[in-house]
Amino acid sequence: MTGRTRLTAEQRRETILTAATAVFAERGYQRAKASEIAARVGVSEPVVFQNFGSKAGLFAAVIERASDTAEQLLSSFDGGPVPSVLRALLSPEHLDALHAPGSLGVLFAEGTASDADPRVREAAAAAVQRLARGVTSMLQRAQEAGELSVDLDAEAFAWSLMSFVAARSFRRAVAPDAELERRLVEQLLRPLG
């Protein structure tokens, strides 16, 4: 008879975080239940709370991890021409994937919702600000390399890009035609040349 391998505290926390990321991305913060996360990991609900304190604490940790993932994605594009990188990141296909149920984009939207727990909103705000700093840095490096005009306000432009990404579901709900998305991206990226 073989016994189950006992996980270290760090491994247990990691498995809970992985399961929570999937559940929150699929169901949203409000509809997700700690019991569902615990069941996916094969632990009791109190074990989830022992590791993260509360559902809000768990979601805050998930948001931080999503921010790490987004930052790694940005870093993976380092060295490519910034206008091309941004066109790829802002393509309708990429934006659809980012806002699809089960995606990390859903986590940021859930975290910044006005009815979210204050601790969740705070963690989401910090994560989005961190991501905006990463985009700003990418733009500044491109300016230093002579790829972008030094007149471009990198921070303001980064926030314009982030706002554009966040408003995808709004545009999908009310925009008159699908081609508008491509035209908006071209308009937004026009200052980059």
Verbal overview:
The chain has about 190 residues and is mainly α. The protein has one domain: Orthogonal Bundle (Tetracycline Repressor, domain 2), CATH 1.10.357. It contains 11 helices and no strands. The chain has helices at about 10-25, 35-40, 45-50, 55-75, 80-90, 90-100, 105-110, 120-145, 155-165, 170-175, 180-190. The mean pLDDT is about 85.
Number of helices: 11
Radius of gyration: 19 Å
Q: Bin the helical content.
A: over 70%
What number of domains? 1
Strand percent estimate: under 5%
N- and C-termini, Cα separation = 67 Å
Supply the CATH architecture.
Orthogonal Bundle
Q: What structural class do you assign from the helix and strand content?
A: mainly alpha
**CATH C-level class:** Mainly Alpha
Oligomeric state, counting identical vs distinct chains: single chain
Strand/helix succession: HHHHHHHHHHH
Low-pLDDT parts are none
Shape: elongated
Task: Please write out the topology.
Layout: H1 9-27, H2 34-41, H3 45-52, H4 55-76, H5 82-89, H6 92-99, H7 104-112, H8 118-144, H9 154-166, H10 168-174, H11 179-189
Helix pairs in contact: 1-2, 1-4, 1-7, 2-3, 3-4, 4-7, 4-8, 7-8, 8-9
